[in-house]
Design goal:
InterPro entries: AAA+_ATPase, ABC2_TM, ABC_transporter-like_ATP-bd, ABC_transporter-like_CS, ABCA, P-loop_NTPase. The protein is of the alpha/beta class. Helices cover 43% and strands 16% of the residues. The strands form five sheets. Strands 3, 4, 5, 6, 7, 8, 9 and 10 form an eight-stranded mixed sheet that branches. A six-stranded mixed sheet has the order 16-17-18-13-19-20, sandwiched between helices. Strands 12-11-14-15 form a four-stranded antiparallel sheet. It is elongated, with a radius of gyration of 46 Å.
């Protein structure tokens, strides 16, 4: 069986793309206020950062925060002189003050505090550690573990490390401190704060001494003295390095102070050392090397290495470690870039907030069924995806461009110091990945409120998780890089990592007066930007492909077979269809109670399927829809093997009570759901496999108006007209004719936004949309609902004229509308077609009787009933209430003259308030057929 000639109104790819682009631009123009609010968000954030930056700069520029001055008695006469430079009362001044001659600090060891030094514990199997009682007196020794292949040599070297001959001084003594280190050594906290220790093998009464350090930090140098308290050392042998590791690990218990609870001073593994060969591994305390704030501090390691080296060289001399000192430096201005310090979190929120914007826009079209409405009027998936994607990409690109430009104009170092080309590539990759992800996620949402909530949870959740979970892993050098890359597969963390790298480079560049990130920095081992860009590029392509596939399977009307891609490359527009060689057996199971007209319609369909050509636009072949049972309920058969043929030029009306299956039938025909079995052919195209081509010749007026609230009636028709390949003068004429036909042309109504239309006006616009472009098949679901009588009459005339050379399926609950518009009617009950024919045939077939109505007093009701029985022995009372009764009388048993005579007689016997005799109406036929069918299904 072949279809008719290919429809002339199929629009090409670029014509569809142009129509959608014009619609989107118009829609965007009407939502300019929402766009301004969106773009104002980064403006407001940047302004807040600038205000915060100004406040911080004002605090930093205060004299109290600059290189300080104090009054010093320089000549001993009791008068003081103002001397400016680093003051010992404020260690924070050292970064900004000039230090031409850095102080020479004695080298120190990182000594555990008295309360943390290693003692015996229940979990430790070694008994050579001191008892815990020493912590109460504060005289616990510091412990050193020794191991190696030569125990005698190891213990000898360890015992000689802390044996210092008098006189005690800062050069010969082994000094240490339990204070935290700083980033530089201009002012060592060990000499400013409380604790400074002199470590010896044994402490005597005169073991403590004052350490004198010349401090040339101010304009006049002077000596600073600090007492070094003696602390005994305890050298303990262990048989292997694993024993040492085990004790160090078990001694590291996190208390409230986050410190080592059972600390040792250090440990030495002499390996294969002997008298001629020196080889040693050193354990040292690096607790303060990388702090919680991400800064790297000094490590007090040189003295530990010097001690063991001197112990080995004790018979050949000693290498004296006099002091440690920083390099001289000029005065610098303290700089703190708030945007770089806080920008990673805040800018993550700024960029990722585009995700819920795109997501809600896509879900809105899905929830309002605008996407499927466009598709049912011929918009292909290719143009939709291309234009929608480029549309969101243009908006996102403009958003990011304004964001970067504004941040640069107001002077945020986060933008001005980093290379703009790197920023462009990074943001371009991410917004593409973000748009692709929004397309993918939108397939799983059908409610815009839910999508909005989830979208903004992702926004704030990503920022907070990035700052408090992901960033600590990035800054921890011991955390495996592979796990970092795995976490960056989540797009939000990839965005956070890139912004973090920008912030680090801009913060460092601002502090040191250098540039931020350049292309050469991407090769640095610590720079994760190159990894992030590669991840985002690959994810963008993968997510976009997956999103398109998922959209085709789940979100495009009734969906497609998961294997459709295998068929897509070899599928061309079909020109004919053939009857399947093996018909499904269940589609041939029909009940014996089918009416002759229904059986005749089925036989006609069987014949149409065998013919090579046909004038029928719609052929339904045993169409069946079954909804699976849920919550213990049985499955629901919505459509039971419907066979129906509708030729061009016919308007077919579908009547039936609520729940009869009309909506399920229409949903299958327009592609919203797939048939459970059987199929239907529209213009020769199979709705199961060729629905995309069916859409090009189809018009739909849905039960609920699917319109864009901010587009005008004219703009709606222009958009759908372009989808039907109308252009130029023909498009303009078709739009104006459509507007006039539904009374939406005059009075400026055509150029009023659809959101301001009344319900009746929206209904008329929906009918005009369904008819524009000369579609070959039109589905109208209750088109006159909500219309006033005049508008309804005008709309009926529009539909009546429109059915020329096209097939129309119309559902309605108005019997008057069905009788006026429809060439044939079908009554649906419980999923099955109960009868089919034109209105006159149905009334003749199912309504061969008169309806006699009479109203009397309640006391005379039995008299009326007796009169009806005398006129027609087979009359049947169909209505009885408060003195009013209706009777159906077969036409072959009664004449109208007899009825008039009987009424005259009755009036003389009892009061008759009202009476009437009418022929059977279509409504009577509908009620009769529906009731009988429902009674039958109830009994069966």
């Amino acid at each position: 069986m072949a279809d008719s000639e290919t429809s002339h109104n199929t629009a090409a790819f670029w014509i569809q793309a142009d129509a959608l682009l014009r619609k989107n631009l118009t829609y965007q123009k009407r939502n300019i206020s929402a766009n301004c609010r969106l773009i104002s968000f980064p403006f407001v954030l940047c302004i807040l950062l600038i205000i915060t930056q100004k406040l911080v700069d004002n605090q930093i520029s205060k004299a109290s925060n600059q290189c300080g001055c104090q009054c010093i008695d320089t000549n001993g006469d009791g008068t003081c002189e103002k001397v400016c430079g680093v003051q010992f009362s404020d260690l924070d001044q050292s970064p900004s003050c000039p230090v031409p001659s850095p102080p020479k600090w004695p080298p120190l060891l990182q000594v555990p505090g008295p309360q943390y030094r290693a003692v015996r514990s229940a979990s430790d199997s070694f008994t050579d550690l001191p008892d815990q009682s020493c912590r109460q007196t504060g005289n616990c020794p510091v412990t050193i573990f020794i191991t190696g292949s030569n125990q005698t040599l190891g213990q000898s070297l360890a015992s000689s490390m802390f044996t210092i001959a008098p006189p005690l001084n800062s050069t010969n003594s082994v000094l240490g401190a339990d204070s935290e280190t700083k980033q530089d050594n201009f002012l060592d906290p060990a000499f400013i704060e409380l604790s400074l220790y002199n470590i010896q093998s044994q402490c005597s009464t005169n073991s403590s001494f004052n350490v004198s350090v010349p401090l040339p930090l101010t304009q006049q140098s002077f000596n600073f003295q600090k007492e070094a308290m003696c602390v005994p050392s305890l050298n303990l042998w262990r048989n292997s390095s694993s024993e040492i590791n085990d004790q160090i690990y078990r001694g590291y218990e996190k208390g409230n102070a986050q410190r080592m609870y059972n600390e040792i001073l250090g440990a030495y593994d002499f390996l294969n050392s002997d008298a001629n060969n020196f080889n040693v591994n050193v354990w040292y305390n690096a607790t303060y090397k990388d702090s919680a704030d991400g800064q790297t501090y000094l490590v007090r390691l040189p003295r530990a290495v010097n001690l063991v080296s001197n112990a080995f060289l004790q018979f050949r001399g000693r290498m004296v470690l006099d002091f440690v000192a920083e390099m001289p430096k000029h005065a610098t201005k303290l700089k703190l870039d708030i945007a770089s310090l806080l920008g990673t979190l805040f800018f993550t929120w700024v960029v990722i907030q585009l995700f819920p914007v795109v997501l809600t826009a896509l879900v809105y079209e899905k929830q309002q069924k605008l996407r499927i409405m466009m598709k049912m009027h011929g918009l292909g998936d290719g143009p939709y995806w291309m234009i929608s994607y480029m549309y969101f990409l243009a908006i996102s690109s403009l958003y990011m461009f304004v964001f970067v430009i504004f941040g640069s104009i107001v002077g945020l170092k986060f933008f001005t110091l980093n290379d703009y080309l790197i920023q462009f590539v990074f943001y371009f990759l991410y917004i593409n990945l973000q748009i692709s992800l929004a397309f993918l996620v939108s397939a799983f949402f059908s409610n815009i409120k839910t999508a909005t909530v989830v979208g903004y949870i992702c926004v704030f959740g990503t920022g907070l998780l990035g700052g408090f979970l992901f960033q600590p892993f990035v800054t921890d050098p011991s955390f495996p890089k592979g796990w970092i890359i795995l976490m960056e597969l989540y797009p939000g963390f990839a965005l956070y990592r890139g912004l973090y790298e920008f912030a680090e480079y801009s913060f460092s560049g601002n502090s040191m007066g250098t540039d931020g990130m350049k292309w050469g920095n991407l090769s640095d081992s610590e720079n994760g930007m190159s990894d992030v860009m590669i991840i985002m590029l690959l994810e963008w392509l993968a997510v976009l492909a997956i999103a398109y596939y998922v959209d085709q399977i789940f979100a495009s009307g009734s969906g497609k077979n998961p294997k459709y891609l295998l068929q897509k490359f070899r599928k061309k527009r079909p020109s004919s269809f053939r009857k399947p060689s093996l018909r499904r057996q269940e589609s041939k199971v029909f009940v014996d109670m089918d009416k002759p007209d229904v059986i005749q319609e089925r036989e006609k369909v069987e014949q149409l399927l065998l013919e090579p050509t046909t004038s029928h636009a719609i052929v339904c072949d045993s169409l069946r829809k079954v909804y699976p049972g849920r919550d213990g309920n049985p499955e629901k058969v919505a459509v039971k093997g419907l066979s129906l043929g509708i030729p061009r030029g016919e308007c077919f009306g579908m009547l039936g009570p609520n729940g009869a299956g009309k909506t399920s039938f229409i949903s299958m025909m327009i592609g919203l759901t797939t048939p459970s079995s059987g199929t239907a052919y529209v213009e020769g195209l199979d709705i199961r496999t060729q629905m995309d081509w069916v859409y090009t010749s189809m018009g739909v007026c849905p039960q609920h108006d699917l319109l864009w609230e901010t587009l005008t009636g004219r703009e709606h028709l222009l958009f759908y007209g372009r989808l039907k390949n109308l252009k130029g003068a023909a498009l303009k004429k078709a739009v104006e004719d459509s507007l006039r036909s539904v009374n939406l042309f005059n009075g400026g109504v055509a150029d009023k936004q659809a959101g301001k239309y009344s319900g009746g006006m929206k209904r008329r616009l929906s009918v005009a949309i369904s008819l524009i472009g000369d579609p070959k098949v039109v589905y109208m679901d209750e088109p006159s609902t909500g219309l006033d009588p005049a508008s309804r009459s005008n709309l009926w005339n529009v539909v009546k004229r429109a059915k020329q050379d096209r097939a129309i399926i119309l559902t309605t609950h108005s019997m008057e509308e069905a009788e006026y518009l429809c060439d044939r009617l079908g009554i649906f009950v419980s999923g099955g077609l109960q009868c089919v024919g034109n209105p006159k045939e149905l009334k003749a077939r199912y309504g061969g009787s008169y309806v006699f109505t009479m109203t009397t007093s309640i006391n005379d009701e039995h008299e009326v009933e007796h009169m009806a029985r005398r006129l027609s022995p087979n009359s049947e009372r169909t209505y009885h209430m408060a003195g009013t009764q209706k009777f159906e009388m077969p036409k072959n048993e009664v004449s109208m003259a007899d009825v008039f005579h009987a009424v005259e007689v009755a009036k003389s016997r009892f009061p008759v308030y009202a009476w009437g005799l009418s022929d059977t109406t279509l409504e009577d036929v509908f009620i009769k057929v529906a009731n009988s069918a429902q009674q039958f299904h109830t009994l069966t």
